[in-house]
Design goal:
Layout lengths: L1 H65 L2 H4 L3 H15 L4 E8 L4 E4 L13 H6 L9 E3 L16 E9 L6 E10 L1 H6 L12 E6 L4 E4 L15 H4 L6 H8 L2 E7 L5 E11 L2 E10 H62 L3 E6 L4 E4 L1 H7 L3 H4 L4 H5 L15 H8 L3 E8 L5 E13 L2 E11 L1 H23 L3 E6 L4 E4 L1 H7 L3 H4 L10 H15 L10 E7 L5 E12 L4 E9 L1 H25 L7 H13 L10 E6 L5 E8 L3 H6 L2 E3 L3 H9 L3 E3 L17 E9 L2 E10 L7 H69 L5 H33 L6 E5 H19 L2 E4 L6 E5 H17 L6 E8 L4 E8 L6 H4 L22 H12 L4 E6 L3 E9 L6
Parallel strand pairs: 28-30
Antiparallel strand pairs: 1-2, 1-5, 3-4, 4-5, 6-7, 6-10, 8-9, 9-10, 11-12, 11-15, 13-14, 14-15, 16-17, 16-20, 18-19, 19-20, 21-22, 21-26, 22-23, 24-25, 25-26, 27-29, 30-31, 31-33, 32-33
Helix pairs in contact: 1-8, 17-21, 18-21, 21-22, 22-26, 23-24, 24-26
Length: 1002
């Protein structure tokens, strides 16, 4: 019978084991798939957020770009520069190109050069942008026009973000701005390289109409609508129900089967932003997830075989030994029972004794005697209660009838609990004991008592209680918040420090969720972090100190410092967070950061003193340094004025982002006018929280703003004013004003130094020019004096050697030659004297009303004799009524030189004409035209220049130095005019100069 039972049990156990292992295998596989799909859905959600964040950031960037003043004012060059700078800033954030369109849809500028001048007027996005209702909005296009395609990858996914540009009038459509954003990097780099499934895991995008926007695994499907199923689709797919499931729900998981590949797991999440609605789908082959479980199935089969063999061998051995043991057990049953009882008593680790109905010991094991300090024979037959249970722990007598052993002996009641026993030496100890009645034929005939010494356990429990009490005391007295929660985020512990920091009483918060002390904006991150922590995929935060944001009961959000620890029991995991309010520390750090930034900015400003740049460049860079000061909370708009020397007026010298209307209106600001003028006149910082009645300079539609207007002073003199824009309602701050005063002091040093540098540079340049001109002039004089003096020397030498041999005619010729040489020398010396007087500023200058016709007639008279000798006709075409305002002597010199040169270089029987005409409301142009030999263009360009030597002989060999033209230029410019010449080789020349018509124009 026993053999059959063993065989039956073996079969049952083997069958149960097989079913159990197979069931565990399938359960494990199902659990793995469920956990993976949960992670996969989380991945789809995170990828959706990454894409939406990217689209949101770039849409905001395009919106900002569409509001730039340079776009609204149609300044193409400025707009192109602004767009290029903005593109250089944005292109690291997936932006591939930015384009500007005019109101007709033509691209007038693009960072993508090939796109410029292309016509996009027939596109869907241009039609959308031209609608007035879409002003201020953005439009996202998934199918980017080929004009903007830059990626060479088949699977690249780009979108275009479009924003219309309107002028000051809501109906004034100026054009639009577009930016092409490449989302491919986000889609391809999202899956971490250390993922177990990254080699097969991929994402694809589909819009709400079923069009595939992105599919890296099958790029040929991009822009294909899944509703338009053709034969190529049915070659791979058995059904498209999974696509309908994805399109029908905002988020979820599904699975589908392809014809020639394994089943795939999909999780999807919806992006709804602006005009788009996309499904982000993450796919993974099922076998990638369950392979390791299936591989373990072989181990399961092997385990089943091993267990089966063990059970079969064991059954065989049991069957064989069963027959042998049956007889031996029967014979030794009595002996074994007695021996076992004695062995149990002697080897037991706890005290055991038997009692009769009177409470006397009937048997005692060695351990009981040892614990009580008696010998066994001292206990046998003696009354138990009298020996070791006579007194309570507090010293009071313990009546026998109140003892639990008495109840067992007389009422048959078993009992288990703690008691206090006494040793033979009078010392007591705590025991954990039980008493059980012994019955025969239904009657209690005695009792068995078992006990063990629990002194050490009681001591440990007492130590633990003391430790817990100390911990509770420390926890409750700590200033920091100490919070205990489980893995679900339920608050289980809350000390006084937590009540003080977060405002919730212990009774209000225990059992509630941690989200009560987490700001709403951070709760989603908290849930995600808890999921990773519980899944043990983010262990780095345990034991670390982190800075987070906390939420007070009042709704106030404040910074905290969190240190997190983890501890576990046999079936639960708990987290202890020690939280410290670091608001004051953050304030101190912020204040320290402000002081550091102040020193840094002032050092940057001071550094401008040493940089080699113009005053305007220094002012512009300094203004940008101030506007970039983060703690000031400025609007990134400002300007810098300098006071006009000799006038109580400010002139705008540098500006950053100032509206054009303000730049025009405030180009010149009188002292005392508007906030800037008041700052200059009072010497005090002017503050305004908004545009108020003190803003005399304002216009219709001015954007409301606040002001700091800071005067720049040096030794009581107003050098200029700094103005920076503030947000409306900004409150003035002593630290801000102190910094701005210091900045103004640095600007004072910059302005004074740059003025001094400019003055020194100007003086040096003037001195170098004067020295150069002097050297050149003396070189010319020395060269031109050589020829007439040589003539003097030669003639006088001839006359000295043989004057008596010369005829009267020869003497006459000698005298004429001497006169000509003397005239040339005199003219040179006269020119030299006048030039020297001009350079020293001592020449007489007395402008007045002149009759131009009379001045020209006088000049003609002075050279008429020489003109007659060459048969040259002089014509004066100046109107008799023409008046000019100039110095008569200087104008005579100019005309005399021009006429003399014209006669000198005009051939016999030539013609010279003097004309005048009014060239604008202020100036009169006089010209001297001849029919002489003319000049080459290169010689014309060298006229009127000190550094160029232009001299040649006249048509009859008349000498020429070129010095007269230099004087003419000096005299004309002294009278407020200009001088120039035109000439054609072989045809003649025309010399021009201008003078003012009246005193008001001089």
């Amino acid at each position: 019978m026993k053999s059959k039972l063993i065989i039956l049990l073996t079969v049952i156990i083997l069958t149960f084991t097989i079913f159990l292992l197979v069931g565990l295998h399938n359960s494990a596989k199902k659990e793995v798939v469920q956990r993976f799909q949960s992670r996969q859905l989380f991945t789809a959600r995170q990828l959706s957020k990454e894409l939406e964040t990217c689209l949101r950031d770039e849409s905001r960037a395009v919106e900002i770009l569409s509001t730039l003043p340079v776009l609204k004012n149609k300044k193409t060059d400025a707009a192109a520069k602004a767009v290029q700078e903005y593109f250089e800033y944005l292109k690291k954030d997936h932006v591939k190109s930015i384009s500007i369109y005019d109101e007709k849809g033509t691209i007038i500028y693009s960072t993508l050069k090939d796109a410029i001048a292309s016509d996009q007027s027939d596109t869907k996005f241009f039609a959308w942008a031209a609608q007035r209702k879409n002003k201020g909005y953005q439009f996202i296009i998934e199918d980017v026009p080929q004009t903007f395609a830059q990626s060479s990858k088949n699977s690249s996914f780009q979108v275009m973000i479009v924003a219309p540009v309107y002028g000051e009038s809501p109906s004034n459509f100026i054009g639009l701005v577009s930016a092409v954003v490449d989302l491919d990097d986000i889609l391809t780099s999202f899956f971490k390289p250390d993922s177990a499934h990254h080699s097969k895991e991929n994402a694809w995008l589909i819009d709400k109409d079923g069009t595939v926007l992105y599919q890296a695994e099958h790029p040929e499907m991009m822009m294909f609508n899944v509703h338009q199923q053709d034969e190529s689709c049915l070659e791979c797919h058995t059904s498209f129900k999974y696509v309908e499931t994805i399109l029908a729900k905002p988020t979820g998981t599904t699975a589908y089967q392809l014809k020639e590949s394994s089943e795939k797991l999909s999780s999807f999440f919806t992006i709804n932003y602006k005009n788009i609605s996309w499904k982000v789908v993450v796919n993974t082959p099922l076998n990638e997830v369950t392979d390791f479980v299936d591989k373990n199935s072989l181990q399961t089969v092997a385990l089943i075989v091993v267990i089966s063999l063990i059970l079969l061998i064991s059954s065989f051995l049991l069957l064989r030994s069963n027959r042998l043991k049956a007889k031996a057990e029967t014979e030794a049953e009595k002996l074994r029972g007695q021996q076992a009882f004695n062995l149990i008593l002697e080897s037991a680790g706890e005290g055991i004794f038997g009692l009769d109905l009177n409470g006397n010991h009937t048997f005692v094991n060695p351990k009981a005697a040892e614990l009580l300090g008696f010998k066994i024979e001292e206990l046998i037959g003696k009354h138990s209660h009298t020996l070791w249970h006579h007194t309570r722990p507090n010293g009071e007598p313990y009546p026998g009838k109140e003892c639990h052993i008495y109840a067992t002996l007389h009422e048959g009641i078993s009992h288990t609990g703690e008691e206090y026993f006494w040793r033979k030496d009078g010392t007591g100890f705590s025991v954990d004991f039980s008493t059980t009645p012994i019955s025969e034929t239904g009657k209690v005939v005695g009792a068995v008592v078992t006990f063990q010494d629990i002194t050490e356990r009681k001591l440990a429990e007492e130590t633990l209680r003391a430790s817990e009490e100390r911990f509770r005391s420390v926890t409750q007295s700590a200033n920091d918040a100490i919070i205990i929660s489980n893995k679900l985020g339920t608050i289980l512990g809350w000390n006084k420090g937590a009540e003080k920091i977060f405002g919730f009483a212990n009774t209000e918060i225990i059992g509630k969720s941690l989200e009560l002390i987490i700001p709403p904006d951070y709760r989603e991150k908290h849930y995600t972090g808890m999921e990773r922590l519980v899944a043990e995929s983010d262990r780095h935060i345990v034991g670390k100190t982190m800075e987070l944001q906390g939420l007070h009961k009042s709704g106030n959000v404040f910074p905290v410092e969190l240190s997190l620890s983890e501890w576990k029991t046999s079936n639960e995991t708990f987290y202890t967070g020690i939280i410290r309010d670091i608001s004051e520390r953050k304030k101190a750090e912020a204040e320290e950061e402000k002081q550091r930034e102040i020193l840094e900015k002032l050092n940057d400003l001071s550094g401008l003193l040493a940089e080699d740049m113009t005053l305007e460049q220094s002012l512009e860079k300094g203004l940008q340094i101030i506007l970039s000061t983060s703690f000031l909370r400025l609007e990134q708009i400002g300007g810098l004025f300098l006071s006009e020397i000799g006038k109580n007026e400010l002139v705008l010298k540098s500006s950053v982002n100032l509206p054009e209307a303000i730049q025009t209106m405030c180009a010149n600001v009188p002292f005392g006018h508007c906030l800037c003028g008041r700052a200059a006149s009072t010497g005090k910082i002017q503050f305004a929280a908004c545009v108020d009645e003190r803003h005399e300079n304002h216009y219709q539609g001015i954007i409301d703003h606040g002001h700091y207007t800071i005067p720049i002073f040096s030794d009581g003199e107003v050098l200029g004013v700094i103005v920076v824009y503030l947000p409306v309602g900004h409150l003035s701050n002593p630290l801000e004003m102190s910094f701005l005063r210091s900045a103004a002091d640095v600007f004072s040093g910059i302005i004074i130094r740059k003025h001094a540098e400019n003055e020194i540079k100007s003086k040096n340049q003037q001195l170098q020019k004067t020295n150069s001109e002097k050297d050149k002039f003396f070189s010319i004089i020395a060269h031109d004096l050589r020829s007439p003096f040589s003539g003097f020397l030669n003639l006088t030498e001839l006359m000295a050697e043989g004057s008596e041999d010369f005829s009267k005619v020869e003497l006459t010729d000698f005298s004429k030659a001497l006169h000509d040489s003397a005239s040339t020398v005199y003219k040179l010396l006269e020119n030299l004297l006048e030039w020297a007087q001009m350079q020293k500023g001592t020449i007489s200058f007395a402008p007045g009303e002149l009759s131009l016709a009379e001045v020209v007639s006088f000049g003609i008279d002075t050279i008429n004799q020489r003109a007659l000798q060459k048969g040259i006709t002089l014509i004066n075409e100046i109107p008799e009524t023409q008046q000019v305002y100039a110095d008569e002597k200087m104008i005579n010199t100019v005309l005399r030189n021009f006429l003399s040169n014209a006669v000198k270089f005009t051939k016999r029987d030539g013609r010279i004409v003097v004309r005048s005409k009014k060239i604008d409301a202020e100036m009169i142009q006089i010209s001297v035209q001849d029919t002489g030999v003319g000049m080459a263009e290169k010689d014309v360009n060298r006229l009127f220049k000190m550094e160029e030597k232009v001299s040649s002989k006249g048509t009859d060999g008349e000498p020429s130095t070129g010095l007269g033209l230099l004087l003419c230029k000096e005299f004309v410019e002294k009278n407020g005019g200009k001088v120039w010449a035109e000439s054609t080789k072989g045809e003649g020349s025309i010399f021009y100069f201008t003078v003012p018509e009246s005193m008001q124009n001089n």
